[in-house]
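User: Here's a chain of 205 residues. Predict its fold as tokens.
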Amino acid sequence: MSVTPNNNTRFSQQVLRDQPVLPEHLVTRVWQALTRATKDKHHQWRTPVLASIGLDGQPQARTIVLRQADPTAWRLEAYTDSRSPKCLELTQQQRAQLVFWSEKLRWQLRVSVIAHVHTQGELVDHAWAKMRQSPSATDYLTAQAPGSELLAGQHNTAIATHSDRDHHLAVLAFEIVAMDWLALGRGGHLRAHIDRTGTLTPLTP
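Assistant: Prediction complete.
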């Protein structure tokens, strides 16, 4: 007995044919790119934009440097000056978002996170041990806090102390809640939601 497809059946078949084909092993490739960005200074995902809510309730966005990426813990890390306003902002409102863009990959990645600010402890000590011998170490030893007004005769690189133990480095640890991946292409764009289990949900770009 043969069955003639009705309109609903034809529509369902068309929808299946039109389902977007996401890149194979997408979640693995995303984490490979994030991990590579922590080591390659020229990788375009090395400097994402961190968007958060300021103390006045207004949005704040700034570029940061990605320092660590842990695909097992679903965690990212960046460093900042502990006197920076964003430390207090992220302490009061932990929910934030990191936005990555790669012209080479034509990928945008929006990462929703819960931020944890560490100003002391083993995590900070480990980070400083790696940073203290680099030229960037002086960024965390300045007399003036980030955003402070420079008065006449002051220099923004003036060092406040002769001891590098008295640094102001803080670690921003970002616990990833979810990712929104977008790929731009001439033949059409692709988009997917990625949850903490690695489950992909195709989305309309």
